[in-house]
């Protein structure tokens, strides 16, 4: 797996640790610094004069134009994101629909809340999932009208609503852990950045599908209300039991993997003809480093892989003590052949994984010292 961020390869560890670039640093004299500062000031002044002379006085600049899904102008593109994975074709096909069995009462509570949310959302959207329709001769139009299949707009509404909610738990967890770290004046054990990466990853899913459709005012109001209720409920719940909250998110991500797997099956079977040959949005090509000729199907495969990562990580987190254990995935994560085919690491597996990661980090530190002449 190629990664921009959390990664299972050894080559990533130096970047996470924050090594200096290879080569010795050169000390500058005070006169050198004055010369550099003077040159920088003159260059900056020249650039300001050039901008003032060439920019129209009252016209809207291309740098301020916005699209429906972003405040970033269309002519400015960049990767303003945290670390995130980039998959190959074998990895996205390794994801399986899995379910973790409930082992105790708290697991049942978390799973029950997820199933309740799923049933309510299906009722509101009028969706009925059946593996075999009542009449095999029903046309695509008839299946959609009866609620057994979703059209492209139905899938988008479902995905946009899901992703607008799915981006909440990671941010809540990161916020509370950040405040706890400040309040107790101690390190966090690597939990904060993993939670932030999850929250941003879900947000990028939303931004990707937002580029396909501009939601109505009613839909935005629905998301606003649901997000406000869910954020506060999850915030209060995380104060009481982080473990149950991570288990809840793990079960929620199971549903997300199931949803995207179903969407992929419908798309590949030709049951969503509107998306059959649709090119991937540019934001998705930039984010997942997809080829220029990538299709929307490739994007959905990548999104499903992300969701399987969140499923695996949150179920594994729920097996740990969030107040004292180190985050086993702070330095690296297993590849998709593990995260896609397993639902969790047990506590002992997480401890062993963290130990191996630490040993790998020490080896890289020693190697970097030798490469840089002992610095």
TrEMBL record:
Top-rank taxon: Eukaryota
Transmembrane segments: 155-176, 217-240
Molecular function via GO: alternative oxidase activity; metal ion binding
CDD domains hit by this protein: AOX
Main location: mitochondrion
Cellular-component GO terms for this entry: mitochondrial inner membrane; respiratory chain complex
Cell location: Mitochondrion inner membrane
Basic and acidic residues bias spans: 32-50
Annotated positions binding Fe cation 2: 202, 253, 307, 310
GO annotation (BP), single: alternative respiration
Protein EC: 1.-.-.-
Polar residues bias spans: 51-66
UniProt binding sites for Fe cation 1: 163, 202, 205, 307
Signal peptide: none
Cofactor binding annotation: Binds 2 iron ions per subunit.
Keywords from the UniProt entry: Electron transport, Iron, Membrane, Metal-binding, Mitochondrion, Mitochondrion inner membrane, Oxidoreductase, Respiratory chain, Transit peptide, Transmembrane, Transmembrane helix, Transport
Region (Disordered): 32-66
The protein's required cofactors: Fe cation
Family, per entry: Belongs to the alternative oxidase family.
The protein's role, per its UniProt record: Catalyzes cyanide-resistant oxygen consumption. May increase respiration when the cytochrome respiratory pathway is restricted, or in response to low temperatures.
Protein name (record): Alternative oxidase
């Amino acid at each position: 797996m190629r990664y921009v961020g959390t990664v299972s390869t050894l080559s990533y560890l130096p970047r996470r640790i924050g090594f200096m670039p290879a080569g010795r640093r050169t000390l500058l004299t005070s006169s050198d610094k004055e010369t550099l500062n003077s040159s920088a000031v003159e260059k900056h002044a020249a650039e300001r004069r050039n901008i003032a002379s060439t920019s129209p006085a009252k016209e809207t600049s291309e740098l301020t134009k916005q699209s429906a899904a972003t405040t970033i102008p269309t002519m400015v593109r960049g990767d303003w994101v945290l670390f995130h994975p980039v998959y190959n074709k074998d990895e996205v096909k390794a994801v399986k629909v899995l379910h973790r069995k409930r082992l105790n009462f708290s697991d049942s509570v978390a799973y029950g809340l997820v199933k309740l949310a799923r049933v309510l959302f299906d009722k509101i959207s009028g969706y009925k999932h059946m593996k075999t329709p009542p009449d095999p001769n029903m046309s695509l139009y008839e299946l959609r009208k009866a609620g057994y299949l979703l059209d492209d707009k139905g899938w988008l509404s479902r995905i946009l609503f899901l992703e607008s909610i799915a981006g909440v738990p990671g941010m809540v967890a990161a916020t509370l852990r950040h405040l706890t770290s400040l309040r107790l004046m101690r390190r966090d054990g690597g939990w904060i950045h993993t939670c932030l990466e999850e929250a941003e990853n879900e947000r990028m899913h939303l931004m990707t599908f937002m580029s396909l459709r501009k939601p109505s005012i009613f839909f935005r109001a629905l998301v606003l209300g649901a997000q406000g209720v869910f954020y506060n409920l999850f915030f209060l719940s995380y104060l009481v039991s982080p473990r149950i909250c991570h288990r809840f998110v793990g079960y929620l991500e199971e549903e997300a993997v199931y949803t995207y797997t179903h969407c992929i099956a419908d798309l590949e079977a030709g049951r969503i003809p509107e998306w059959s040959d649709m090119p991937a949005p540019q934001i998705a090509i930039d984010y997942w480093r997809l080829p220029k000729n990538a299709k929307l199907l490739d994007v959905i495969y990548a999104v499903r892989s992300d969701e399987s990562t969140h499923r695996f990580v949150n179920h594994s987190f729920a097996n740990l003590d969030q107040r004292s254990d180190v985050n086993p995935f702070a330095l690296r994560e297993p590849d998709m052949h593990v995260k896609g085919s397993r639902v969790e690491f047990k506590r002992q597996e997480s401890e062993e994984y963290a130990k191996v990661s630490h040993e790998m980090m020490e080896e890289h530190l020693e190697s970097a010292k030798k490469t840089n002449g002992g610095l």
